[in-house]
Model the fold of this input.
Amino acid sequence: MNSPEIDSLIMLLSKLPGIGPRSARRAVLHLIKRREGLMMPLSQSLADTATKIKTCGTCGNLDTSDPCLICRDPERDKGAICVIEDAGDLWALERSGIFSGQYHVLGGVLSALDGIGPDDLTIDPLVSRVRDGGISEVILALNATVDGQTTAHVIMDRLADSGAKVSGLAHGLPVGGELDYLDDGTIAAAFRARRSV
Amino acid sequence: MNSPEIDSLIMLLSKLPGIGPRSARRAVLHLIKRREGLMMPLSQSLADTATKIKTCGTCGNLDTSDPCLICRDPERDKGAICVIEDAGDLWALERSGIFSGQYHVLGGVLSALDGIGPDDLTIDPLVSRVRDGGISEVILALNATVDGQTTAHVIMDRLADSGAKVSGLAHGLPVGGELDYLDDGTIAAAFRARRSV
Done:
């Protein structure tokens, strides 16, 4: 008995990750109560982003300009490339403020199960960027999953004779983490990598 | 370091119920990967719904026409009004297919905490609809919360001399529910309302 407009909006919203039909219905009710304040701005913002956002041809970041703001920033270190799986990981690293070099978005990780091979990722462009020179360190900031670590190993092999130092993120206790709640693998990794204090 | 378009889209999405900044970021990445298939249609659907959907002046339902489809349907029973808190409850009842009469959306429930009094709800229009005659039953399908039941009592008082029969939803075991997981109040209500079988 819903109007087709509402049904199609519910259907589209329920395609977003983490939103099912029930929360899509709640969201639609919430939106209809806030037409001017939220619904129209959201519609406009979606259209804006869809038309303006490009993928940076150098690093794969999402931005309105190509090359992106990070690639064009003269203040950032040109000698270090941090390799991440997708733009969301880039955003996470930028929020942490720990890194001020260049990025390289792989566009995924190798996965035999999902049929994702080296040609589906931007591994070749990464190797070219490193071989073009001027890169002293490549940091592989990939997820600590089997697929992520497999991908890291493949990239390490490809960069072995490039002259650049290749590093990966440390394994260990998350800050604020409790031993009792951690899996054995993490505890063992943190123990092996112990440091004198 | 995100572009302002992406930041404002994340901010708007995170205002939806059940979506925080983290899931809004995931949703934005998901949308940017599906610009033509999901992002532009969603933008269009939001604009469509925001401009076309009206609140029915009779029952408070959301529809493209006023009076809404349900109020205009000649097949539906004109003698019964089901009172619900908001349009989402109307949708839930329509999905169940149990009721084929008229609806009345209150627009909320009385709440001393949130400062919602009788004048903020459509209680007066409901009383007018019932007093205008032709209504034999008013079904109060309000949530089984303290605020919902308080509101039900206030409406019952207002309709006491209207001549219409006023009923409320039964309390008891949810279909498929297990005694062991139910709260004491529900078990007691189901026990008191036991029926011979």
